[in-house]
Amino acid sequence: MALVEGIRNLKEEKPKIRKKMSKREKKEARWGLLFLSPWMIGFIAFYLLPMIASLVFSLYDFNPAVPDEATFIGFANWRRALFEDQEVRKSFIRTIHFTAISLPITLGFALFVALLMNSKRVIGKNLYRTLFYMPTMIPVVAVVLIWSGVLNEQTGWINIFIEKLTGIQATGTEGIRWLANPKLVYYAYTMFGLWGIGNAMIIFLAGLQGVPTELYEAAEIDGANWLTKLTKITLPLITPVIFYQLVLGLIYSLQYFLAPFVLNSGTGFPEGKTRFYMVYFYKQSFTFFNMGYGATLAWLMFIVALIVTIILFGTARYWVYYEAEDLQ
Amino acid sequence: MKKLWILITIVVIASFALYACDTQAPETPEEEPVAEETTSEEMEEEETEEMEEEEEEAEVEEPGEKVQIRWFVGLGAGSDEPTFEPQNAFVERFNASQDEIELVIEIVDNDVAYDTLATQIAAGNAPDIVGPVGIRGRDSFKGAWMDLTPLIEANDYDLSDFDPNMVQFYQVQEEGQLGIPFAIFPSFVIYNKDLFDEAGAPYPPASYGEPYVDINGEEKPWNIETLTDLAMFLSVDANGNDATMEEFDTENIVQFGWMNQWTDPRGIGTFFGAGSLVDENGDAQIPEQWREAWKWTYDGWWEDWFIPNGVYGGADFLQGPGGPFSSGNLAMIHMHMWYVAPWALGDVPFDWGLAATPAYEGTVTSKMHADTFGIPKGSDHPEEAFQVLTYMLSEEHANELLTIYGGMPARLSLQGDYFEQYEETNFPDKDINWDVVVDSMAYADKPNHESWMPSFQETTDRYNEFWNKLANTPDLDVDAEIEILLQDLQTIFEAAEEIEE
User: By C-alpha distance, which of B245, B122, B497 is closest to A62?
Assistant: First the structure.
């Protein structure tokens, strides 16, 4: 309704916009554009032109090592990506598979920690908040390398700890091979991500602190327990935050690249399981030097991410609760 | 408002126009068949004319201004920190030697060197000299190198001081002479004398054709079977049992007997005989001896336990500055001359020696690495770049670079006292058997294990994936995995052929 009203208002205002500008207004507009121009030039030079260039590249067989031999091949790259190259489909499925494991665990854990940090009963909350946020300050490459040591099948302390605690053989050739076992590798990669939940936790915490306390007080008077309060008050009221985190998390997951690239140079080890879509895109563009085909893959991912985001926004009306809408 | 937009549009169009004027127009595809029909002499003439034109362009420099020649280092040796200073010193000496050319060195870390060079070439900013670069580095940029033949002829450059086979090594069909021999790196066995002494095992043969005398004094031919027995005997678990014993604990190995260190499936395959993944028709193939080499390695990983597999590869006891061998817990490796250098073997706490490569079914194959310097086609100053190249490869100056990179000179006249000097500089307290290095040259692999394949990087990626799977997965049907690899390689080759068409 609000949107319809807004459009109506805009229509009503239309004649005003067409009104001839006075000298002073023109001068102001010129100054405004002048101040905007650095951003506009930056946008054109570093975003728009490269995007157009990559779209053009997608129609070429272009190897940067022999640029003079670039040939126009029409939509051959697109046909290859959509219908012929099985690795595109496989790498996309791997990405979705990993996202399906990683995203709920990461978001769930960030929300869980935020709920703890928001609890009245936790002592030293500021210290914990700092401690949980601190790993976010560490560069992701370092995080990946640290975790690869922690999960080392021979000497990693997680395997040693499991072995000492349970007596199960966790080290050696018969042990738990977190990064080499195709069935475990996505969980291992998810563990890297858990170290970086600081940002998500802070945003969830802000959302939790925005929930009106009178609602909890009223619920307590009605005899609601913590689970009821969580499911009937907290979660519905922070759905905008969950939605925001979900959109960002999904886009981030679709672009997942750094961990597999740092750990095994994008070889896909083990058994191709970590050759995610963006790894494959990188390989095609910068290792195999199929820059034209790489540009096609980049555009394809852009289209997929756009569609996924549109679908998510489409579903938002069914489960995301905006308090402001009710007030209107 | 309208005027402002018009102004912005004009500026954008003008900048496009200026850029377009500055960029070389790509060659039209229609021109290619004409070039194919011309004879090699005509092609050479055309190339010489092209170069003359380029020279004329280059001559439009400001009077008295030096021509800047950019030297790109990173595809092979030369990107390690200890080599920076001596390389810079070499550049300074060159610049001080004459007043027409200014040599500028660009050292790029090996991890990003391929991307950096590709970006520079694509942006029309190609360096003038690239190297040292091996066969692998060269073939990763197929089509990007200049044929040096016209420059060699125009400058009357003398190639008689090089082994003709080594000159031929850099001749690529349909591309020409892409390099002049600079450094060669034969391969051989390097062994840890301390581990042999501890086990009471005699050392492996110091020369080709010599048999191995085992611990019982029995003479055996120095071949893969003898090597396997010896390597198993030198693989030891935490209880002191060796891999030939039934009670050998495969979960607690503390010392291994053998490794083809730092090579790939093609290198390991070549240990059993030279071959190629590409047959004469351009189709994928797996040479029979390579299949055998891969199965032998797989058994060494998971059955006989004398080669560290993927799991043991990450173990602490096998980490050293020069990889597993320099850890002191690996008895023998097969390796190239570039490894016999201070960074790998300078500070190891054990004594080591060099031995002959064992034979497979009566034939010895010692794979060869060779480095050179190339001039990219995009170089603005090929003539000056060639002048720098001749300085680098000259009898007077090649040794300076060879000492930095640890290479054996390709120039026959420099090979005489090279090892004496090298030992004096790098290993003054050791008495090294260099004869085996020289003798290994006679067993170089032809075709070379690093030679060209269709979709070079993609093919490499695929066979490395295959190899990683083998190294990390016990109980595999290796023959079945090889067949899958073969099919995948064929698919990649066919796709590459389609693109070329």
Answer: B122
A224 CB neighbour count, 10 Å cutoff: 17
pLDDT for A65 equals: 82
- Say what the pLDDT of residue A191 is: 92
Could you say which residues from 17 to 36 on chain A have a Cβ atom under 8 Å away from some Cβ of chain B? 21, 26, 29-30, 33
Whether residue B417 is predicted with pLDDT greater than 70 in this model: the reply is yes
* Smallest CA–CA distance from A152 into chain B, residue: B314
Considering the four listed CATH numbers 1.10.10.410, 3.40.1080.10, 3.40.50.620, 1.10.3720.10, the one that applies to the domain covering A76-327 is 1.10.3720.10
Chain pair A-B, CB pairs under 8 angstroms? 98
pLDDT of residue B426: 87
**Mean pLDDT of the B473-493 span:** 95
- The mean pLDDT value for B198-227 works out to 97
Q: Is B428 an 8 Å CB contact of chain A?
A: no
Cβ distance of B114 and A287 shorter than 8 Å: yes
pLDDT tens-digit map of B277-315: 999 999 999 999 999 999 999 999 999 999 999 989 888
How far apart (Å, rounded) are the C-alpha atoms in residues B289 and A230?
67
pLDDT at residue A225, rounded to an integer: 92
Q: Domain locations in chain A? A: 24-49, 76-327
CB contact under 8 A, B4 and A33: yes
* C-alpha of A218 from chain center: 37
Give the chain B residue nearest A20 (alpha carbons).
Answer: B1
Q: Are the beta carbons of B314 and A153 separated by less than 8 Å?
A: yes
DSSP A45: I
Interface-testing mutation among A63, A145, A148, A168, with chain B (most B C-beta atoms within 10 A): A63
Q: First CA to last CA across chain A, in angstroms? A: 10
Give the pTM.
0.78
| Amino acid at the residue A210 | G
- Return d(Cα A289, Cα A283) in angstroms, integer: 8
Closest CA to B259 of B292, B235, B288: B235
Candidates B4, B116, B250: best to mutate against A (most CBs of A within 10 A) is B4
Q: Hey, is B484 helix, strand or coil?
A: helix
Check residues A7 and A202 and name the one with the higher pLDDT.
A202
Q: What is the pLDDT of residue B29?
A: 34
Within 8 A of B252 by CB-CB distance, chain A residues are: 172
Closest chain A C-alpha to B270 CA, distance in angstroms: 23
Lowest mean pLDDT among A300-314, B113-127, B361-375: B113-127
- Mean pLDDT computed over every residue of chain B: 86
Contact B251 A68 (CB under 8 A): no
